[in-house]
Amino acid sequence: MENLNWIFQFLGRLHPLLVHFPIGLLVVALFMELLTIGGKRKGLREGTHWVVYVGTVFAILSALFGWLLRTQEEYSGELVDNHQYTGIATAVLATLTTILLRLTIKGKLPDFRAYRAGLSVTVVFLTIAGHLGASLTHGEDYLTSVLPGNTDVYDNTKGLALLTELKNSDSISLAQQDKLNLEVRAIFAHNCYQCHSENKSKGELVLENKKGVFRGGESGVIIVSGKPDESELYKRITLSPNEEGVMPKKGKVLKKTEIELIKLWIQNGAHWSDQALKVFPEAEMALVKPELPESNQTNPVDKITATYFEAKDVEWSPIVEDRIFMRRAYLDIVGLLPEPEAISQFAKDGNPNKREILIDTLLADTHNYTQHWLSFWNDLLRNDYSGTGFITGGRKQITDWLYTSLEENKPYDQMVAELVNPVEGSEGFIKGIQWRGVVNASQRTEMQAAQNIGQSLLGANVKCASCHNSFVSNMTLEQAYGFATVFADSVLELNRCDKPIGKMATPNFLYPELGSVEGETVQERLYNLSKLMVKRENGRLYRTLTNRFWHRLMGRGIIEPLDEMDNSPWNGDLLDWLAVDFIESGHDLKHLIKRIMMSKAYQLPTIKYAKQEELKTDYVFQGPITRRLSAEQFSDAVSQVISPVYHAVEYSPSEAKLSAKRVWHPEIKFDRNVLPEPGKRYFRKSFTLPNKAITEAKVLLSVDHSYQLFINGIKVSEGSDWKKVAKLDVSEFLKPGKNSIAIEGSNEGSIANPAGILFSMKIQYDSKEVVQIDSDTSWKSVAEAPHPNWTSEDYHDIAWTEVRNYGTANWGRLIDFTFENLNGAFARASLVKQHPFMKALGRPSRENVTTSRDEQATLLQALELTNGEFFNGVLEEGATLWLERYNYDSKKIVENLYLKSLGRKPSDSEKEVLLSVLGDRPQLENVQDVFWSTMILPEFQFIN
Question: What are the residues whose beta carbons fall under 8 Å from the beta carbon of 434, sequence distance 6 or more?
Fold first, then answer.
């Protein structure tokens, strides 16, 4: 039988040839099938079927021959396993798809939907299997290595210099042996890991670590210390490229310099350094404040920028006019548009320091500053008001702590220390999401803490290293697990690609040169970690934050991408100077914002780039990048100009605890509370008032969906929009003695859905005594229509049922539900829980850390802004308000619209076009159209 093994080997080696047939055929079949949807192109039907049949046959043969190749040749490792499993799955799914196709043709299935679904899933698995196969053949970084920032960083000139140095030395010192070994290991990493790593150990040979190198492979030992000519490794790398056993294969032979370095290493005893191999570049940890260069510029940022401009042959442009600067400053600091009157006054102000005064004034507006910057920090710290994990309690908000920290301008080092070593209210950050069911080892909560801190605070990618040694940095699996163990109450076992490897982690910080985090308990380790994190020597922490703020205010970071802080900055002196200045300010976040915004560099005209790629490769700073308004900024701007976009917030930082509860009749089925059914329900509250003179009695009322309000049998009000709080003076309807409140509430819809009454009445007597009556569980309700006099104060409701408190989950907190005059206040979008409109505009779900949002407009955004029901509803409400406010005066509508939205008057041509749309007596739809045409202008949607 052994004599026949060559047959199986031969068939196995046909796998690379056969595997391309199902890739091409099945993908083409899916494409052709999509063309026939809706009964179109019926002529393609038979051809499509034959392509599916042939593709399925080749998928089965490819899986079979791939299995033979695996069993007969020297392939092993996780990557091989995954490729094999997805390949077999593709063959199985292709077979099932063919069966579904045959059943459909024979009329046993009603249509092609099941077959098309099967074909789609087959192509998905085929794509995954193909990608894994390509990773096996070309290396796991084959695709990503060509991306900006991921290019091969190995520079052979360093090896050549080392070789020259060692050849000229009479003896090699220990330090030189370490350098030689690290250089040889770098050669292995860039040329050999794609076949001989822990993830893919072809021939059972691993060159990724000391144990694997000196153990050798299935052919035996590959290194004979001191004897390169007897070492299998050296023999293989010196073979002719055309010989069978040459290594590395695939035509990627080593350079002469690399071969000589390996030979020299073996000759000198094949010393293995204890130092970690640094294949990828790493930024210096320490921060040193650079000396400011000589320059005619006065601002420190501009002094450094001037030197950079001179080196890059860039001319300074004139700074932007006051109107543009003011709009930019308002949106960046408080997230709102400046009012027309403020713009006019600022333009007329002759004070040469007026821009600094404006920045100081805006930063002092604690309320609006905090509510604007809250979105940035919510993204960064993965904090949200609802979403995955909240229902099960496996996730916790940090909103109260975060809001207070920003409001108080808490020093950044204190914020970081409290995030890492939690105080009350901040523990949600490292708690992470406790997913239901079985999860990947790299997503356990301790590892999430390590990943979140690494990404958000240190600009380091721990996620890749939490599954295997990183492909994009020098971080190892052992480092990632060591960091995760800091947050674990038990020792963690390392899992490579979700499989335990029998090695236990030791608690450690990602950058041990800063100190040790070891401790007997989690609390001790977190305390030690918090001290290390905020040390001045931890340059990563302060560079990362500085880089994020520069990106936020300028549109592009000094280092890109923001989460890869080992990449080269376009100006390292600028980044380090700002980071040290930030530390010396007492870690003052507002100081950092002001330092950047006061620079001439910030006040330059914005630069527009036609393609995002221009911001990634060969980037030269010339000024801020044109930025799109964020989802929150756009929503707030529409609220300011047109009409409130949102009426309720999920988090309300300033209001007193609301005593009124949103209540409704209890709906019970099978002994369980259920959602209210559509229809009318009846509510009552009886109360007794003393014989005192009432000076004022006000009512606040919101009912979802509609209501009629009666006081002492008299109809007082009715409404049908829960977002608009009814504010009523009811003093004339009250009397000493017994009184009653009665509400007929209607729940609309065709199926059960949330419904609720929110009511509050404040009665003030001439004695200054105040009585407040709120909706709560002391109210009573009934489902069936009661006696006609049920609204009177004399009606007996003893048989009625106690109402149920439905909370605020479905409505949030109505900001207008207050007896105070808010003077046109609206719900800030940063305080609103995720909404489809904001999601379409780019607000993330925050299940993961988000350090930057996509600036590119999407088709979903375009559709939402053009045809979206929600946005058009806001414009309709606004049109109604504006027609009443400006008494149907088209000229006033156009002029005020431009002043409020763009900070300027319309040009003659703009005015002519808009007035032609509105006419002499504008209609609701015409005003909506004018609003829409203004809101989609680039001048409105972008920060210029």
Answer: 389, 392, 393, 394, 395, 445
Residues 6+ apart with CB under 8 A from 691: 736, 737
CA 453 to CA 529: how far, in whole Å? 11
Structure confidence by residue, pLDDT tens digits, 523-575: 999 999 999 999 999 999 999 999 999 999 999 999 999 999 999 999 999 99
Question: Contacts by 817-825 with C-beta closer than 8 Å and gap 24+?
Answer: 817/658, 817/660, 817/700, 817/702, 817/725, 817/758, 817/760, 818/655, 818/700, 819/698, 819/700, 819/760, 819/762
What pLDDT does residue 474 have? 84
Phi-psi region of 919 (alpha: psi -120 to 50; beta: other; left: phi over 0): left
Distances (CA, A) of 580 to 60, 156, 373, 585: 62, 35, 22, 9
What span, in angstroms and rounded, lies between the C-alpha atoms of 273 and 75?
29
- Least Cα distance to 709 among 682, 689, 687 occurs for 682
669-678 tens-digit pLDDT: 888 889 999 9
Q: Angle at Cα 119 formed by Cα 113 and Cα 123, nearest 5°?
A: 145
> Alpha helix locations (H) across 534-571?
539-554
Computed on alpha carbons and rounded to an integer, the radius of gyration of the chain in Å comes to 35
Reduced 3-state DSSP string for 112-150: CHHHHHHHHHHHHHHHHHHHHHHHHHHCCCCCHHHCCCC
Q: Is residue 619 within 8 Å of residue 556, measured between CB atoms?
A: yes
How many contiguous H segments (helices) and E segments (strands) does the chain have?
Answer: 33, 20
Q: What span, in angstroms and rounded, lies between the C-alpha atoms of 716 and 695?
A: 19
Alpha helices in 587-732, H assignment, sequence order: 589-597, 631-641
- Structure token digits, residue 517: 């985090």
> Can you give 683-711 as a three-state secondary structure string?
EEEEEEECCCCEEEEEEEEEEECEEEEEE
State how far the Cα of 425 lies from the Cα of 383, in Å rounded to an integer.
Answer: 12
Non-local (6+) Cβ contacts of 922 within 8 A are 883, 888, 890, 893
Q: Which helix (H) or strand (E) holds 157?
A: helix 156-167
- The overall pTM is greater than 0.85: no
CA atoms within 13 A on the CB side of 319: 14
Amino acid at 394: G
Cα separation, 703 vs 747, in Å, equals: 9
Say which residues have a Cβ less than 8 Å from residue 98's Cβ, sequence separation at least 6: 52, 53, 56
Q: Extract the runs of DSSP E, i.e. beta strands, from 146-191.
A: none
Q: Can you tell me the distance from the alpha carbon of 620 to that of 611, in angstroms, rounded to the nearest whole number?
A: 14
* CB neighbours of residue 693 within 10 Å: 8
Question: Cis bond leading into 248, ω under 30°?
Answer: yes
Count CB-CB contacts under 10 A for residue 363.
19
Distance from C-alpha of 216 to C-alpha of 589, rounded to nearest angstrom: 54
* CA count, 13 A, side-chain hemisphere, 763: 21
Residue type, 152: D
Estimate the crossing angle of helix 366-380 against helix 354-364, to 10 degrees.
Answer: 70
Residues in contact with 860: Cβ distance below 8 Å, sequence separation at least 6, in sequence order: 840
Q: In angstroms, rounded to a whole number, what is the distance separating the alpha carbons of residues 9 and 70?
A: 9
Q: Give the model's confidence band at 154: pLDDT under 50 very low, under 70 low, under 90 confident, else very high.
A: very low
Q: Which residues contact 257 (CB under 8 A, 6 or more apart)?
A: 156, 159, 160, 163
Residue 435: is its pLDDT beyond 90? no
Would you list the DSSP string of 438-476?
---GGGSHHHHHHHHHHHHHH----TGGGTSS-SSSS--
**Residue 516 main-chain phi, psi, to 5 deg:** -100, 145
